[in-house]
Fold this sequence. Notes:
Chain A is mainly alpha-helical. Chain A has one helix spanning 9-51. In chain B, 78% of the residues lie in helices and 0% in strands.
Amino acid sequence: MMPDLGKYAFAVLSSYGISLLLIAAIVVLSLWRGARVRRQLEEVEARRKDHG
Amino acid sequence: MSHRFSLNALWEFANPQKFMRTSQAVLPFFWGATALCLAVGLGWGFFFTPEAENFGSTVKIIYIHVPAAMMAINAWAMMLVTSLIWLIRRHHVSALAARAAAPIGLTMTLIALVTGAIWGEPMWGTYWAWDPRLTSFLILFLFYLGYIALWEAIENPDAAADLTSVLCIVGSVFALLSRYAVNFWNQGLHQGASLSMDRADHVANVYYIPLLVSIAGFVLLFVALVLFRTQTEIRVRRIKALVARERMG
Amino acid sequence: MIALFRRDLALAIRAGGGFGLGLAFFLIVVVLVPFGVGPESAILSAIAPGILWVGALLACLLSLDRIFALDFEDGSLDLLATAPIPLEGVVAMKAAAHWVTTGLPLTLAAPGLGLLLNLQATGYGWLVLSLALGTPALSMIGTFGAALTVGLKRGGLLLSLLVLPLYVPTLIFGAETVSRGADGMATATPLLMLAGITLATAALLPFAAAAAIRINLR
Lengths: 52, 249, 218
């Protein structure tokens, strides 16, 4: 299934590899921070509701 | 509706509410479209395109390098527009969207640089040859770093939004100026011009469609991430406001 | 405004004002380079324009955070912002004072340091001319950066990160002027670009810097 990349296999594979890694990193970090902030907001708003 | 994006009237401004609602509704579509386009574009490009004259299989790198480079520029352009909107109309969502976009632009610039360098090695014989285009992206990388650092350094959120907007505008002028300066600086020195990346722009049809799909994928990825990250920034701002109110008792 | 200019000059020159530091730093950088790249005169000759320009640029950078720091701390910046003279004028005067105490001495010292780096004889004139034209831009751009970061504790590093990329065009055109001039090639283009950048920054950046100060004083 893998195409014959010839002598450039390293260049092509590492390009794709590093790039997909970087994309995954920014997506994962964004999602993770988003979830954390959302939880924080829920806590703060719950506190507000309790104290009226 | 869950209370997590409360329509509570104490959200300070109408705009953030509307933004949260709308973005929440469209985000799933954007994530889905992103995944689809990236899978199709990159998959087709990687597996099903032929080798090219002069480039061999490295031509496949264009499916990452070109879209990333485009987004690196477009992200900054978007930041410029949203910064202007903030300075003129004072819409907080605009300022926060600029802040949200910067790390994405930074990542895109890094991808463009890394793929450019990796591609350069078999083409030019060296990983880094101070090619004018790549050098301009290196400078852009520094601009992104400075912009992000300034946001982090200023405590007052409105002041941070204002100062980073001014920096974005001045930076944009200097970025264009630098592009010209770098072209001047490296003219005639780079012997690898016969195999320069410029050739890759004139791609044949067989490569063109997967490239378009990949570009679409990167654009959608950018939009999805900016929408999501801006939501996060709005929540952060709200947390700060509520915590400040708590402290005041 | 002249009074402001003279005051800033006096502040910079008196003891503790850091006046000689920039020059000393310039000297040190130029001395260090041969230790790093080896004493071969052909090599030094080739890189001399660049080293001199980079050294001057870094030396300029050193004193940037002082431009507004003292006035910010003791509240005189607030007074200046509300004074009858426009803040843009204040900013321009501060940039001018910075240039007189930093860029100008560097420009005058550069030929001497060029000797240390085996700068070609044909290059000296271009060196002084390019520095004379370009260092005012460095001061103005630096003043803008200082305005953005005024009042930040330890803002010096951030200031460098913000300002150095903005210095790239001036650096390129300045160093190219000297290199090409030393080789006897045409220097009109880089020289004109250099002058253009200086004029444009002097005309436009005071507005951006004044805006930044007003934001920081809120």
